[in-house]
Design goal:
heterodimer, A: elongated, B: nine-stranded mixed sheet, two-stranded antiparallel ribbon
Chain lengths: ~280, ~290
Amino acid sequence: MIVAVASGKGGTGKTSVAVNMALSIDNAQLIDCDVEEPNAHLFLSPKISQTQAVTVTVPTVNEKLCDHCGKCAHFCQYNALFVGSDKVLVFSDLCHSCGGCALVCPKEAITEHQHKIGILKLGSTDDLELVYGELEVGEPMSVPVIREVKRHIGKDKNVILDSPPGTSCPVIQTVKDSDFCILVTEPTPFGLHDLKIMIQVLENMRIPSGIVINRAGVGDNRVYEYCKEKSIPILLEIPYARKIAELYSRGIPFSQQMPEWKAKFQTLFNTVRKLVNK
Amino acid sequence: MKQLTVLSGKGGTGKTTVTASFADLVRNAVVADCDVDAPDLHMLLHPKIVRTQEFRGSKLATIDETKCTKCGLCQEKCNFSAITENLQIDPISCEGCGVCSFVCPVSAITLTERVSGQAYISETKYGFMAHALLTPGESNSGKLVTLVRQNAKMLAEKEHADLVIIDGSPGIGCPVIASVTGVDAGLIVTEPTMSGIHDLERVLSLLGHFNVRPLVCINMHDINDENTKRIVDFCAENGIKVVGKIPFNQAVTEAMVNEKPIVEYAPESEVTKKIMEMWERTVSALTCGS
């Protein structure tokens, strides 16, 4: 089973929920898909067994063969090529690696090479497997790194995907093909606003979802009213507690210091399993 | 005219709280919400939209079933696995590159523009605002950010504003890059947590990469004094100015629930005092340049 943990709004507690749940269940694999700002490893201090480069395919133009006809630049939807009168400029950071420029070039002057945009790390803490990626600073496109990280999903594992914040392409890439999505929110207008956008995204993608309310007790009731109205299940509430916040700030998963929470995260996972199997 | 981007790396550290407060404190500025896929600033500033633009940031392939011979070449050449086994376009995976259309031997595939969001120009009681909403699940948020920034700049020039304040999105990827390039300073709002520190370091490298001057604000500094000290020391070692330290205060959430900037909602609070001091320091950093 693959369970994604997403939110819309940042800082609502996605990583906290993903890490604590992963530590509370058997046969778990945690995949941190927030490759722009990966944080799960900070809570797990994993032993890294493998590190590999993540690359994308970008064009190289052989100026000897090129006659500067401009067909490649005209074809490219992303403005990643500029053809001057005697030189072609390639903007690797705009390239989506579609391969179209090489296809349209009548002189076969375009070949492809690998451009490094990040790294991927495989590791583990006790029985928990961790996979995460790091987008190289200055590289704009996180989606290929997320795609690569997700290629390491274990077939018979209880897979938990920690999603980046937002509701755009990196989030779509993360939650795609999940069996369920846990949405972590906080009972504030910001939390609710971004939650609504995520619910719409998941409805379009036909991925079932449920809510974890973090920092319960702060804010107002509008999130609860919305969930009731839309019949979205509230799977767990984590109260606002100084101790949880403090443990978080020190990089300690709170279920390890507050063992009553381990059972709650197990129940959360089992509830999700039941909803998926229904 | 100066441009200041408020950013954070990690989400939920208080970017929008800071931006909304600055919008209330400043006179003669334009505000831009460049978090286009989860925008929240409008909930505090209550903009009245005066102009809406459609944003067409990408294209989508469509197959004409009457022409398609099911040869499968499009599926073979698609690098995004956006064409399914039974030769349908998966709009979620399609990046609108046009390769399928190019290779199709019977010209059955065309590219059509898709509306990926809306950009707005609005009036608020705090001044003009440029903002947008990406259609949920769409890509190309970086291009939409660029459009919002162009709108903000245009408004600032028209209104002879001295400053554009940009509320950024979390992360370090394309929308963040689009919201920091060419600005005069980036104010990073962080928190004294392990995640906050980790993400601060990455976002500082990002600003370094694009040659943007960093300023740092430590929000909720009193939730972990040791980590706050680590951030302060790190910044001192690297010559980075810490312009503000804001204490944890329940009033910040209350202000959000009441949909007002904290400096307006609780003008006498300690948080407001600290934000006002931070504002002064930010302005002087922007004007004196060092």
